Amino acid sequence: MAQAKTNAMRILDKAKIEYQMHEYPHEGNQAVDGATVAKLLGQDPQQVFKTLVTQGASKQYYVFVIPVLAELDLKKAAKAAGEKSVAMIHVADINKVTGYIRGGCSPVGMKKSYPTFFDESALQQTTVIVSGGKIGTQIELCPHKLMELCKAQPASLTTQ
Question: Could you give the domains of the chain?
Answer without folding.
Answer: 21-155 (3.90.960.10)
